[in-house]
Structure prediction request, 306 residues.
Amino acid sequence: MSESEITCKDLVELVTDYLDDRMPAEQRLRFEEHIAFCSPCAVYLEQMRQTISVTGALREEDLDQESRDAMLSVFKDFWR
Amino acid sequence: MEAALLVRYEWRVAAVRYAGDTELVQALRDGEEAAFAYLVDSFGASMQRVAALYVRDRAVVQEVVQDTWLAVLRGIDRFESRSSLRTWLFSILVNIAKTRGVRESRSVPFASIADDPESRQESVPADRFLGDDSAWPGHWAATALPEWDRPLERLLSGELRTLISAAITQLPEMQRRVVSLRDIEGWSAGEVCNVLELSETNQRVLLHRARSRLRDVIDRSGILEN
Prediction:
């Protein structure tokens, strides 16, 4: 990687560092400059964000009643 | 009131009452059942999913969760607030699940692919970029990357959901754990490092590989093309 420029190939490896805000300020600046001028990389970054949100949407929140009762019974047995 | 609605209501009341770890821990030490029910309703479903990252058998998942609750009740007097109650609880769960996972793997092996964070692995195949002999080495070979069409809406259809679930199952096990905890359970990087005992760098490498792989799977499937 040259001092002044990030290539597209470099950029795809830096996306997680960027999203987790784990980048030196100067590298962050170069990353954002690149995105501003490179449309495929902007699309790539957006697709990574979309990947994260669709993965997050897989979560199923509900605890079934049977499991819940079993878990609560641990407390009752413990304090008996 | 319907049972599920009642649980929801009780959970909200408890969320106010046990707003901080201090109140919650004290209530658990005092043997308040409502405090325990609050923990169950806050973390129970998540605990089942996290245990399933280590053990396959549904019955073993339940046992891991039950054993964790017992360990929490037995250990609450010794809990020191150096970590959050949640981190502490999940650390116990992961330790129990790991032990059970090792025992289980002697009979039912988890498909485990070697994954060394130190090794290099490309997020995008190298041939998608221009080579060193071109005028723009390292730039995209194609001038445009097609945008995805409304991924969250498409998730409802089920096809995308099935695709991503299957792709997560096929990830090397540490990648699968890290991406599940970060992106499905919504944990912070620090919390994942603490519970999985990973360095910050390794956590990030594993997460990056997993997310890049999932993006690639979605992209190749063509499901989100216009």
Q: What stands out?
A: Residues 8-75 of chain A form one domain. Chain A touches chain B through 45 residues (CB under 8 Å). Chain A has a mean pLDDT of 92.
